[in-house]
Amino acid sequence: MKVSDLKAPIDEELRIFEKKFREAMRSDVALLDKVSYYIIQRKGKQVRPMFIFLAAKMCGGVTEATYTGASLIELLHTATLVHDDVVDDANERRGFFSINALWKNKIAVLVGDYLLSRGLLLSLEHQQYRLLHIVSNAVKSMSEGELLQMEKARRLDITEDVYFEIIKNKTASLIAAACATGAASVTNDEALIEKLRLLGEYIGIAFQIKDDLFDYGEADIGKPRGIDIKERKMTLPLIYTLNNSTRQEKKWIINTVKNHNTDKNRVNELISLVHQKGGIRYTEKMMQVYKEKAFSILNEIPDTEAKEGLRDLVNYITERNY
Fold first, then answer.
1. pLDDT at residue 220 greater than cutoff 80
2. Domain extents for the chain?
3. What are phi and psi of 96, to 5 degrees?
4. At residue 55, does pLDDT exceed 80?
5. Mean pLDDT score of the chain, rounded to an integer?
6. What are the CA-CA distances from residue 235 to residues 39, 202, 218, 248 (Å)?
7. According to the model, what pLDDT value does residue 222 have?
8. What would you measure as the largest C-alpha separation in the chain, in angstroms?
9. Element holding 209 (H helix, E strand)
10. Which residue has the higher pLDDT, 62 or 233?
């Protein structure tokens, strides 16, 4: 299924949202406006806004608050991406130059700050305090997840439990916030909002596990294999392999990640070992577990076109090849 097919049930809403989002990013400062235009022209698949509109439609229908929530999520998400590229010293984002590569770190940090403040102001201007609370909690979790991953990368002592805590905070929290925001924009039913938040959390965990699998795959996804190993990120395939290796193999794995993570041949040997030890099979199995958890919540919600659209979107993000 193509992304355009997935967008079909919410096509009109996404068109309206794009216009509102461009307006939300506008600034009287020429440099800021130029950078904002660059960001908008190179936007991604808009997965998070899709979750918001589908969740809102499942819970009653899209309102003006839904558009505010979608802009809020996308502004804060974009701010975190701009800041992430500075933290990671990344020169590319989605195949294009990153903001820090074109305008240097200082401007990139300030642009991220501007986008963050625009999101906060947008919610306050429309008195959407519930939405602001949901999204602010997500940004807090994302920061904590990123810092926990950095802390653990120094010692390479990540257990499976810590790995899931990291990805729940780092990635799943924003997708959870998107689903909760969609629900909260149309209903005050806290039990339903929490149900949608948990749905998004399970989807987000499955999404990140799929992303972690790409580091060990053969597909050309626009980035080389072994990037996570190079950055000393202990993801599930590697954690499983470590837990199912001999003492000598463990020593070799840790030495490779710590001291030889830029040696292409050594990294490829490690990737082969992960495959041999069943690390990929186990990780794929865990992705399916969280996908099924998401579907079990989805099954409790009455059938609608939006529900089927969300189910298709979950299948897409867990079966994608890039």
1. no
2. 11-305
3. -120, 160
4. yes
5. 87
6. 29, 17, 17, 20
7. 44
8. 61
9. helix 190-214
10. 62
The secondary structure of 273-303 as a DSSP string is HHHHTTHHHHHHHHHHHHHHHHHHHHTTSPP
Per-residue model confidence (pLDDT) at position 221: 42
Residues 6+ apart with CB under 8 A from 293: 202
User: What is the C-alpha to C-alpha distance for residues 19 and 71, in angstroms, rounded to an integer?
Assistant: 10
Residues contacting residue 320 through CB under 8 Å, at least 6 positions apart: 210
Q: Determine the pLDDT at residue 101.
A: 78
Q: What is the pLDDT of residues 263-317, one digit of tens each?
A: 889 999 999 999 999 999 999 999 999 999 999 999 999 899 999 999 999 999 8
Question: For the chain, how many residues are written?
Answer: 322
Contact 137, 177 (CB under 8 A): yes
CA distances from 18 to 24, 47, 182, 255 (A): 10, 13, 16, 48
Q: For 97, which DSSP code? A: E
Q: Do 178 and 134 meet the contact criterion of CB atoms below 8 Å apart?
A: no
pTM of the model: 0.88
Residue 50, CA distances (Å) to 45, 103, 142, 311 in order = 9, 30, 20, 12
Residue 106: burial class (beta carbons within 10 Å; 0-12, 13-18, 19+)? exposed
In angstroms, the CA 105 to CA 200 distance is 32
Structure tokens at 211: 């992303």
Q: Tell me the C-alpha distance between 235 and 228, whole Å.
A: 8
C-beta of residue 240 within 8 angstroms of C-beta of residue 251: no
What contacts 59, CB < 8 A, 6 or more positions away? 182, 183, 186, 187, 189, 192, 196
Backbone angles phi, psi at 92, to 5 degrees: -130, 150
Q: Higher model confidence: residue 251 or residue 105? A: 251
d(CA 319, CA 104): 36
Question: What is the Cα–Cα distance from 166 to 141, expressed in whole angstroms?
Answer: 9
What is the CATH topology of the domain spanning 11-305?
Farnesyl Diphosphate Synthase (1.10.600)
Q: What is the mean pLDDT of residues 137-158?
A: 85
Q: Which tokens go with 3?
A: 């992304």
